[in-house]
Design goal:
Length: 135
């Protein structure tokens, strides 16, 4: 009987080792997913910061080319949609919502004929998004 116990014990060790390897791989994959999400967040926040700069310039030159402000707002909206689908972080979600609201307010002001809409809320919300993505 001792001989029959050894193969079983060997199988238990192999199964235990396999389970440990699967758990370790899952942990590493989850860690990589978290890093990938963080990088996506930072990259998107960086793109939004560039879009906000473009928006400022477009609003300053709105008399010459009013469509540029709308295009900048569209770019920010697109980036917000991208980041919104890639994260489940409550702070990022709030920052995205705040930025989306600020962008909507600027869009409404531009459509209502405001040549100098207040961009400070957009800048502040973009800064907050950058902050939560890098913390």
């Amino acid at each position: 009987m001792p001989a029959s116990r050894r193969p079983r014990r060997g199988r238990v060790i192999v199964v235990a080792a396999t389970m440990a390897a699967v758990a370790l791989t899952a942990g590493l994959t989850t860690g990589c997913d978290a890093v990938d999400k963080a990088l996506d967040c930072v990259q998107t926040a960086d793109a939004i910061a560039d879009n906000v700069t473009d928006l400022r310039q477009a609003v300053e030159n709105a008399a010459n080319d009013p469509a540029k402000a709308d295009a900048s707002l569209d770019s920010i909206d697109k980036s917000l949609r991208e980041i919104g689908g890639k994260t489940d972080d409550a702070d990022v979600d709030k920052a995205v919502d705040d930025l989306r609201e600020a962008v909507d307010n600027v869009r409404t002001a531009v459509r209502d004929g405001d040549d100098t809409p207040d961009l400070d809320p957009v800048t502040e919300a973009a800064g907050e998004l950058t902050k939560v993505c890098t913390s």
